[in-house]
């Protein structure tokens, strides 16, 4: 853990987020490649958020969670996280690169299984991620998917703290987090991650955020209405019964009816296919060349 900032050279930008820019860096002496995420601690609330993220990264140790190899203070008072580099980007960038065309069911099953294993680990450590979405699920060329970005995660202590305060994206937030009275008083905080996973899997199949028409950039109120009162979109007829059922189990508005991670790991959509087959389908997806966006004419 005794790294210094000057031991690393920046190679390129990997992504931008609320928290700051993420760079690909190389260790000058070992040549090892990492991702470096700098967190700016400019106010007390932010400082608390950062210490929570660092705390969680330090205590997680799972192949399904992006590893943190060091926490380096910068001269300007910021903090740089040295993270395992995920060389195939996020599921969000993967979806954009393939023109947001539908991901196949076997590939989604493989993906869902890996994320469920990650969530199962986190939940066993009393950690609720609270920001599961395509941009926070990172992929490497070995076909592994890992959960990243603990910027708004919570460690549950004693009572189930109903996690009311929130900063960040709300598109993937579950109904009970907007309105605990209607969708589960004293709700199970872990169920929120299942909702977000269901929405993520569905988005990868539909090619757009499921609760709104494609291309819409909604305000907060529109989003909240869509999440709490909106119907789930009609799934294409070609979708299998297992897929349909899996999505419905995840996207129960009433959090007490939603399946748990442990139950979903045994769901036929995830458990039905031979594991090697769904993993292969996911690996093929990563190695596919980028396709043109939907609706664009291609000259042959
Ligand atoms: P947001 O608020 O948008 O969720 P954030 O500031 O919390 O973002 P991250 O989600 O951790 O930051 O990272 C932002 C982006 O940087 C990711 O979507 C991904 O594209 C890239 N990224 C982050 N960590 C890594 C990593 N370990 N390896 C490769 N790319 C990464
Ligand atoms: Mg993020």
UniProtKB/TrEMBL annotation:
Organism per entry: Apostasia shenzhenica
Keyword Nucleotide-binding attached: yes
Listed SUPFAM superfamilies: Protein kinase-like (PK-like) (SSF56112)
GO biological process: response to other organism; response to stress
Gene: MKK4
Keywords in alphabetical order: ATP-binding, Kinase, Nucleotide-binding, Phosphoprotein, Serine/threonine-protein kinase, Transferase
One protein family per Pfam: Pkinase
Xref: InterPro entries: Kinase-like_dom_sf, Prot_kinase_dom, Protein_kinase_ATP_BS, Ser/Thr_kinase_AS
Domain Protein kinase span(s) in chain numbering: 8-270
PROSITE patterns attached to this UniProt entry: PROTEIN_KINASE_ATP, PROTEIN_KINASE_DOM, PROTEIN_KINASE_ST
EC number(s) reported in the record: 2.7.12.2
Superkingdom of the source species: Eukaryota
Catalytic activity: L-seryl-[protein] + ATP = O-phospho-L-seryl-[protein] + ADP + H(+); L-tyrosyl-[protein] + ATP = O-phospho-L-tyrosyl-[protein] + ADP + H(+); L-threonyl-[protein] + ATP = O-phospho-L-threonyl-[protein] + ADP + H(+)
Protein name (Swiss-Prot/TrEMBL): mitogen-activated protein kinase kinase
Molecular function per GO: ATP binding; MAP kinase kinase activity; protein serine kinase activity; protein serine/threonine kinase activity; protein tyrosine kinase activity
Protein family: Belongs to the protein kinase superfamily. STE Ser/Thr protein kinase family. MAP kinase kinase subfamily.
Major enzyme class: transferase
Positions with a binding annotation for ATP: 37
């Amino acid at each position: 853990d005794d790294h210094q900032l000057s031991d690393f050279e920046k190679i390129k930008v990997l992504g931008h987020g609320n928290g700051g820019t993420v760079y690909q860096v190389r260790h000058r002496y070992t040549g090892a490649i990492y991702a470096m995420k700098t967190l700016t601690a400019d106010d007390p609330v932010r400082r608390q958020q950062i210490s929570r993220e660092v705390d969680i990264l330090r205590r997680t140790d799972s192949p399904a969670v992006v590893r943190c190899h060091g926490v380096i203070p910068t001269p300007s008072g910021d903090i740089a996280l040295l993270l395992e580099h995920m060389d195939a980007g996020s599921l969000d960038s993967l979806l954009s690169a393939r023109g947001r065309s539908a991901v196949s069911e076997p590939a989604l099953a493989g993906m869902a299984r890996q994320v469920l294993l990650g969530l199962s680990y986190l939940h066993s450590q009393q950690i609720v991620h609270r920001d599961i979405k395509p941009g926070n699920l990172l992929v490497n060329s070995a076909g592994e998917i890992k959960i990243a970005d603990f910027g708004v995660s919570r460690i549950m202590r004693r009572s189930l703290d109903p996690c009311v305060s929130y900063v960040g994206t709300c598109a993937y937030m579950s109904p009970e987090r907007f309105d605990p009275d209607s969708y589960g008083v004293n709700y199970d905080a872990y169920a929120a991650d299942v909702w977000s996973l269901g929405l993520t899997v569905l988005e990868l199949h539909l090619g757009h955020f499921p609760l709104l028409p494609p291309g819409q950039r909604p305000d907060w109120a529109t989003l909240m209405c869509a999440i709490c009162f909106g119907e789930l979109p009609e799934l294409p007829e070609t979708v299998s019964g297992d897929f349909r059922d899996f999505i419905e189990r995840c996207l129960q508005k009433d959090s007490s009816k939603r399946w748990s991670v442990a139950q979903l790991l045994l769901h036929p959509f995830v458990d039905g296919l031979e594991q090697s087959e769904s993993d292969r389908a996911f690996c093929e997806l990563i190695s596919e060349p980028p396709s043109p966006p939907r609706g664009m004419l291609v000259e042959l």
